[in-house]
Amino acid sequence: MSGLDDTFIHETATIGRNVVVEGDVEVGPGAIIGHNVVIRSGVRVGEGAVIMDGAVLGKLPARASLSATTGGSTELPPLVVGRRVTIGANCVIYRGAELGDGVFVGDLATIREDVRIGELTIIGRGATVENRTTIGRKCKIESEAYITAMTTMEDYCFVAPCAAFTNDNFLGRTEERKKRFGGPILRRGARIGANATLLPGVVIGEDALVAAGCLVTRDVPPRMIVVGVPGRVLRPAPNDQLIENQVFFDG
To answer: What are the φ and ψ backbone dihedral angles of 245, each rounded to 5 degrees?
Structure first.
C-alpha cells in the first residue's frame, strides 16, 4: 500500500489504530505497527519488525541553547530499523540512528541520533543511549542504564542496570571542555556491574569486569576485575567467564 509523499507500506504489514505516518517512510513486509505510533519523515522499518504501542520513530533532536553535544541540523540520514527488530512501547528513537537486524529495545527506552547498534543487541527498559555512540553486536544494556554521548562499545559487552557513563570531566564549565568530550570505550566482552560509574574516556579492556557500585577513574586492563571507589584491580576474571568460552560467542 502506498501513500502520500513517497511513503510505502507493504501490503503484508499490520498497522494499528491512531497511527501517524509522515512522508518518505518505508514499512517492510510483515512489519507490525502498534496503536498510537508516530513515524516521522525519513524512517525505514525492515521486514518483520515489531513497533509496539506509543513508540515515536524518527524524532528530530531539539537543541537546548546551552547544549554542547547536540547539533541543530535537521540534515540527518533516515532512521533505519533493521529486520526483525523489536521496539517496545513508548520508546523514542531519533532520526539518524541505525538499528541492526534482530535488535531488541525495551519499553520506554530512548536512542538518540547518530547512534549505531549492531545486530542482536538488547537495549533494556528505560535505558538511554545518547548521540554519537556506537554499540556492537550481541551486547546487552540492561534497564535504566545511561550510555552517554560519544561512547564506543565493541561486541559482546554487558552493562547492568543503572550503570552511568560520563563524558565531561569539566562538569559543564569552561570552553576547554568542548575540546575534550569523550565517553568511555568498552573493548570486546567488557562487563559493567549495576550502579557502576565510568568517568570520561576510560578504556575498559577486553573481557574486563567492573564490579557493582565501582567508580572507574582510570583505564582497566584486559581480563581483570576492578572493584571499589575508586576502582582498583582485584584479580583476573575467571577463565570460564571469558567471552570465547560462552555458547553464544561466534567470533
So the answer is: -100, 10
